[in-house]
Amino acid sequence: MQLHPVDIGIIAVYLVAVVAAGLAISRRASKNIDAYFLGGKSIPWYYLGVANASGMFDITGTSWMVVILFLYGLKSVWIPWLWPTFNQIFLMVYLSVWLRRSNVMTGAAWIRTRFGDRTGGELSHVSVVIFALVSVVAFQAYAFRPIGTFAVTFFRWGLSPNEYALIFTGLTTVYVIAGGMYSVVVTDLLQFGIMVVACVLVAAAAMTQVSPETIAAAVPSGWSDVFFGWNLNLDWGSHFAPAAGAVRSEGYSLFGAFFMMVLFKGILNSMAGPNPNYDMQKILSTRNAKEAALMSFCSSAVLFVPRYLLIAGIAVLALACYATEPNMIPIVDKKHDFEYILPYVIGHKLGPGLAGLTLAGLLAAFMSTFSSTVNAGASYAVNDIYKRYLRRDASPQHYVRASYVASILVVVVGIVFGLYVESIDSILKWITVGLGSGYIASNVFKWYWWRFNGHGYFAGMIVGILAATACEEALVKALPDWCNWFADKTDHFPLVIALFPVVLLASAVAAVAASLMTAPDEEKVLKDFYRQVRPWGFWGPIHRKVVEEYPDFQKNTNFARDMVNVGVGIVWQMGLIVLPIYVVLRQFTGLGLSLALVVATSLFLKINWYDKLEAD
Questions:
Q1: Mind listing the pLDDT tens digit for each residue in 205-245?
Q2: Any domain includes 393
Q3: Beta-bridge partner residues of 538
């Protein structure tokens, strides 16, 4: 594919503008590490919300979502619950408020407000730092590979995919190092604007070039149905044999079982709170607890409509031409690689100008995700390792310089791991199901059970991470016959997903046992945490002690209301997801129903969540 000079010009202008914008704001970040990593906690919630949405609009996930929409149709909207996407609803309704009340810089620092500074608190702090750095490196590796693949497809400069990826990560690193969170937010706003324009234009191109009749003829029966039964029941065999093979190999044929597993995992994962990454960093950067909740609301409100306009537009253009253009899905390592759908459509179906704008938008998505991840990882390295254990009393400028070095190190380590990523799907499942499973038990208990202590947190995290990392490989080696039988009987349902309960159980048993075998945390630490954060849950003994000292203290009795709002919020979010797909497909019945659903749930949340947020 050869880019038109107009497209190259658009991309060049974008790259110069985004780096210049990031560097222009860098002076504001040099005061101290609070300014560098959190923007001085002075950035309005709507800026942070759009910036957070921009960080979630990653190129790797977008490419994957195009593939699953192409293969699974509207049922694909449930598959991202692997992350889970609805964790933003739990944050919006109550967890962002709880988290922001701590007034700290990182998730590891926050953990000390829960477990204190004794041995248990120290161990829990170390485990969060380890998890944060491992997850940051994993997300960088997840983002690194596709950008090189994209670049080598479009740019004819004789470089390898990894060399192209190094160029774009290098450009991103320049403004992240110089400006910290200020640069991240400013460039994210610019990048999100570019992405929205590209999304709308791609959707319009798909709607003008492909008729609903063409789409209906290209897909199997049931492709346009959002609901499902126990089995997927999508017969691609008579339409496109490679698609049938991909559906079987990816292991989602037992869709009912898959949905039950990801729903169970997703609820627990969401109740655990955000992973210690850029999402948590932006919550901690808000000006107060109310704005933290509004920031999480904004992330969902502005993300899904433009993103799914792009995803649906690319998928529809691909569906219209797969039968006559076999090069769209080449054979790589003896199997059809559907990840090439996105670059093929951009290069062959969008035309000069729009192709360049779309590529600029996708480059913006990559740079936004990468920059946010680097900023979060460096904050843990400096605040929770260097400042705490190596240089406690250095000057603010010294810590800012240390932040520059930490950002470079985070980038280098992430790139090294990115060079060894085999596929988007493999690392996606490892991050969401493997590593994420090890995080859940300890981080659910920490919010809702007073007797859970720092020793239990450390034990649950370490056992969970080790089990998540080793469980699948160890099981395959120990019980190969059983694994083969399982794969055959469940139509290759992914073992990494099926093993989630094993990892969760191991982590939970370790966490509870270690807590009960050691003394509770300091009473003062528990009382201060309970008064400051005000969680609901099993805090009876601590609540009674707090009331003895502060008779006017009011218990949080909002559990039922919060859970109702979470349920309605998830429906609201799904309405925002399916609405733009129905727009591109021109299915007006589904469009009308999803629009009515969004309006009704928005009114409910206005009354039962937003209006009561100020009072709380």
A1: 999 999 999 999 999 999 999 998 888 888 888 888 888 88
A2: yes
A3: 449
